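User: Can you predict the 3D structure for this chain?
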Amino acid sequence: MYQQPLQITGNACFFYGTLMSPQVLSRVIYGTINPEPWQYKDLRIRPATLHDYCRHQVRHADYPGITKERGKSVKGTYVTGLNMGDMTRLDAFEGSEYDRVVVKVKVLNDDGTEGEEVEGSVYVYGDESHLVKAEWNFEEFVKEKMHRWVGDSRNILVSPLLYAEMNTG
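Assistant: Here is the predicted structure, written as structure tokens:
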């Protein structure tokens, strides 16, 4: 099945944790969980996979970190259309715990198979001694912890594909 090549506008990032939530991403880059359509008109958000990294729970935290680990892979979202202001706010949000590095990720096709390989930034956790060797769970974060980040999350859907609504309209 043919898919149109991904058009990259501005900066691109791969998110694998709390920023997979549209509400958390919006709060970080726009200062609100309900941005105006003109604010996100350039964003394109797609599910993607980052190979040779592994996601772990950060000890005593609601969020994960990733480390390089050959043979492992991390599912997340690939976001394009971020501007320099967005990147500055993302850098401040991630803080000194993370290093922003450039990686290649595989964007997922509509059928869930891996498609185009693209480049983007990802935030890699700096101190592996603070990571628990257990997988961080996005669904658990949404159900049990996201309310601390954005308010009442009882009516928030779990799938990172929520971004689809931002990509239409």
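The beta strands are 11-15, 44-58, 64-82, 98-108, 114-125, 131-132. The first strand starts at residue 11 and ends at 15.
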